[in-house]
Design goal:
Blueprint lengths: L21 H7 L7 E6 L2 E6 H13 L2 H4 L5 H16 L2
Antiparallel strand pairs: 1-2
Length: 91
């Protein structure tokens, strides 16, 4: 869902460090120790929660793979999960 954009400013310190404003951290759902992904194009950058970026990349990569593997219904997926569990438990 796209809402009203949150816009804020931050100062770059001498070592290139920036404090990300609290409201922006909240919108990105990041905190101490979390990682960010910077996507730069031209003279602007998009900053994303690195976990969200990784998930979106995986989703784009996997798009259509279920259908190509013959998994077209929920029952197909349930059957596959049962087969994999049985195989793992049989080891």
């Amino acid at each position: 869902m796209v809402g009203i954009p949150v816009i804020d400013n931050a100062k770059i310190m001498s070592k290139g460090q920036v404090t990300i404003p609290k409201e922006i951290r909240g919108h990105l759902n990041v905190g101490d120790g979390d990682r960010l992904t910077f996507i730069c194009e031209g003279n602007y950058a998009i900053v994303m929660n690195a976990n969200v970026y990784a998930l979106k990349t995986l989703q784009r990569t996997m798009k259509g793979e279920a259908e190509r593997a013959g998994l077209t219904t929920e029952n197909d997926i349930i059957r596959l999960c049962r087969e994999v569990r049985a195989e793992i438990e049989g080891l």
